[in-house]
Amino acid sequence: QVHLVESGGGLVQAGDSLRLSCVVSGGTFSSYDMGWFRQAPGKEREFVAAIRWSGGNTYYADSVKGRFTISRDNAKNMVYLQMNSLKPEDAAVYYCAADQRGFIRPFSNSVNRYDYWGQGTQVTVSS
Predict the structure, then answer these.
(1) Residue 87, Cβ neighbours under 10 Å: how many?
(2) What is the pLDDT of residue 56?
(3) Residues 38-70, buried b or exposed e (16+ Cβ, 10 A)?
(4) Which of 2, 42, 96, 103 has the fewest Cβ atoms nearer than 10 Å?
(5) Using CA atoms, how far apart are residues 101 and 32, in angstroms rounded to an integer?
């Protein structure tokens, strides 16, 4: 069974930085595409960033491009999201997700593509 646990959320001021972490246990982490999604109150869950199973390609939502960086450490089964220059509109619950067939199919930023999800970590940004 595959488990994902996020950490690193918190309350920050606009312009500050946060680093989210996600540890994955079970399964074969090195074959998973990994993504970060977020969901604000009253809104649908949306794609934030993703990294291919090999670490060779990364993808970002336009709203975070240039401010957020996704990375992974396959030796530690970890994926990270470095968030800089945070804005109030970045406030949401952030979820880590794994696509277990990432190594055999093209990238997708669809929520429905991802098989495993963490419980989420809250990010609050005050103005």
Answers:
(1) 14
(2) 87
(3) beeeeeebebbbbbbbeeeeebbbeebeeebbb
(4) 42
(5) 6
Whole-angstrom CA distances from 3 to 28, 59, 64 are: 11, 23, 26
Q: Which of 67, 62, 95, 91 is nearest to 79 (CA)?
A: 95
**97 token code pair:** 């997700």
CA separation, residue 64 to residues 41, 50, 97 (Å): 19, 12, 18
DSSP 3-state helix, strand, coil percentages of the chain (rounded to 5)? 10, 50, 45
Q: Which residue has the tokens 């975070």?
A: 64
Query: What CA–CA distance (Å, rounded) separates 5 from 43?
Result: 22
Give the separation between CA 93 and CA 26, rounded to whole angstroms.
24
Summarised one tens digit per residue, pLDDT across range 102-117 is 889 998 999 999 999 9
